[in-house]
Amino acid sequence: MSMQDWRKMSDRVRNWGRWGENDELGTLNLITSDKVAAGAALATAGKVFALGMDFGDSGPRGICCSDGILCTP
After folding, report:
1. What gap in Å lies between CA 15 and CA 4, rounded to an integer?
2. How would DSSP label each residue in the chain?
3. pTM of the model
4. What are the residue ranges in the chain where pLDDT is below 70?
5. How many beta carbons lie within 10 A of that of residue 28, not counting itself?
């Protein structure tokens, strides 16, 4: 596939601007309350687990400075 073919295809299938210039959700707009309810109805068992992770002083991407701002090394 040539670069020109690739660009034509990407212009045809992209979602940029689909929901307006100020949209910040993108394709998450397709997840309606009905879709969430349908997905929840599929659950047959549940498990509780913590989502927090302790990354220590280095943080997940860089060094956490003393004022709490994430700094990159």
Report:
1. 19
2. --HHHHHHHHHHH--TTTT-TT-SSGGGGG--HHHHHHHHHT-------------GGGTTTSEE-TTS-EE--
3. 0.45
4. 53-73
5. 9
